[in-house]
Design a protein that fits this description.
The chain is 0% helix and 48% strand. By secondary structure, it is mostly beta strands. The N and C termini lie far apart (33 Å).
């Protein structure tokens, strides 16, 4: 299941340019018995309403400026892995007043695991990553702050 959602209007900053498009989907090994909420390799946060929790980590080379990134995301509703949800990933640079220059693709991999391909943090600085989780017509946002050096 894949979904593209332009969650934020994009204004390009004159100080950056986008590289070539990302590959179609990330290639990662299956995550058996992994609980992202308890693994220090994952960044974890709950949604504003407390219904959903997400844990994510960058795959491959990690977080790099102006390189397409792949993320592994685990979603939970309460204590249960959340399968069958719609996940949209977007980003914003509050200091620059703009978002992403490319929209990432999300693919569900089963058992509450989602793969994000094509995330491009094109500039150094403060970023906000937004994970909009929708299930059964109900949605909540999960926010992460990160500094890209």
């Amino acid at each position: 299941m894949s979904r593209l959602v332009p969650a934020i209007a994009v204004t390009l900053c004159a100080c950056a340019s986008a590289p070539e498009p990302a590959p179609a989907a990330p290639a990662v090994a299956a995550a058996a018995e992994l609980d992202a909420r308890r693994d220090p390799a994952f960044r974890v946060a709950a949604s504003r309403g407390g219904t959903f929790t997400a844990g994510w980590r960058a795959l491959g080379v990690g977080l790099r400026k102006n390189e397409y990134l792949e993320l592994e995301v685990f979603l939970f509703e309460g204590e249960r892995p959340l399968s069958g949800a719609q996940l949209a990933v977007s980003g914003w640079m509050p200091d620059h007043g703009h978002g992403l220059v490319a929209f990432p693709r999300v693919t569900e991999a089963g058992a509450g695991r989602y793969l994000v391909a094509g995330l491009l943090l094109h500039m150094r600085g403060q970023w906000q990553l937004f994970f909009d989780v929708e299930r059964g017509g109900y949605s909540e946002r999960i926010e992460f702050e990160l500094e890209l050096r």
